[in-house]
Amino acid sequence: MFLILYSFLGASVGAGLVFGIGSLAKGGVTPVRLVLARAAVSALLVALSEGIALYFRIGQDLAFWYAGGVGGPIGCNLKLCFRGSGAQLSPW
């Protein structure tokens, strides 16, 4: 539950940053400025997440996650993940 809330909070902060950066100029908010601000904020957040991944040495785990693979986790962890997500119909 908290992961969803944190995701919405992060999206709100990102949208606020994009709108804030896009409206800093004298002419106000324009679509071109919003696109450029979005590109800048996106690059900043990607660099921040990659820096965190390098610091905690979880880059390979994240690469599997981004690619959609589940070959890395142990089966037991995967079962627990499904149990926690609401798939209670499993016989485990």
TrEMBL record:
User: What is the name of the protein in this document?
Assistant: Uncharacterized protein
Q: Does the keyword Lyase apply?
A: no
Principal location listed in the UniProt entry: membrane
| Sequence similarity | Belongs to the binding-protein-dependent transport system permease family. FecCD subfamily.
State the GO CC annotations.
plasma membrane
- GO-annotated molecular function: transmembrane transporter activity
Q: How does it sit in the membrane?
A: Multi-pass membrane protein
Task: Tell me the domain of life.
Answer: Bacteria
Q: List UniProt keywords, sorted A-Z.
A: Cell membrane, Membrane, Transmembrane, Transmembrane helix, Transport
Q: Where is the signal peptide?
A: none
Question: What sections of the protein cross the membrane?
Answer: 36-56
The question of whether Transmembrane helix is a record keyword is answered with yes
